[in-house]
Design brief:
Largest sheet: 6 strands, mixed
Strand content: 25-35%
Shape: globular
Distance between the termini: 23 Å
Bound molecules: inosinic acid, magnesium ion
Length: about 180
């Protein structure tokens, strides 16, 4: 399915994503057994992964959402929170659920911001890890897939606000990015 003609092949099928999300949920569920888990997700890209992950968890979890805006490209990790958590996370086990980690700057900022709120623990679960442009090395407790050096869309990931709602993850044609 490519009504836009912008895609250059499916990298991860709906089936592959679903299987992996189930495996991650099983790991998270056993690691956080009998704990008070809060899943913190970044709008908007992380929502698809979060929704599937939390439904596969065999434990209760609170959901929290944050939104951030980057000060333009080349902002070097300077971000502004445009929507904060609804409640405190002090003493709770916080797992940040993100769609993708690229440079690591966004996640690094978020972790620093969350850490000062004194959660009982703070860890990261990313669906996609593309490490070729990594600037900040962060501990990733749960990782869905490693990605080659391609810009991807679908399953929450967007290209200028579009293509988020694809059920699979696809690479974007190089010429589209260069435009
Ligand atoms: P980082 O701060 O460089 O790690 O960037 C992470 C954020 O950039 C992600 O949360 C996404 O919103 C966005 N991003 C990075 N790579 C891609 C991609 O290939 N497709 C869509 N969005 C991306
Ligand atoms: Mg994001």
């Amino acid at each position: 399915m490519d009504p836009t003609g912008l895609l250059d092949g499916v990298l991860l099928t709906e089936e592959a994503i679903s299987v992996r999300v189930g495996e991650l949920a099983a790991q998270v569920g056993s690691d956080y057994l009998d704990r008070e888990l809060v899943l913190v997700t970044v709008l908007k890209g992380g929502v698809f992964f979060l929704a599937d992950l939390c439904r596969r968890l065999e434990m209760d979890a609170r959901l929290e959402f944050m939104a951030i805006s980057q000060y333009g490209p080349g902002s070097h990790g300077v971000v502004r929170i445009t929507k904060d958590l609804d409640g405190p996370v002090e003493g709770l086990d916080v797992l940040v659920v993100e769609d993708i980690i690229d440079t690591g700057l966004t996640l690094n900022y978020l972790l620093g911001n969350l850490r000062v709120r004194n959660p009982a623990s703070l860890a990261v679960c990313v669906l996609l890890d593309r490490d070729v442009r990594r600037i900040v090395d962060l501990p990733i407790s749960y990782r869905g897939f490693r990605l080659p050096d391609r810009f991807v869309v679908g399953y929450g990931l967007d290209f200028r606000g579009t293509l988020r709602n694809l059920r699979f993850i696809a690479a974007l044609k190089d010429e589209v990015l260069e435009r």
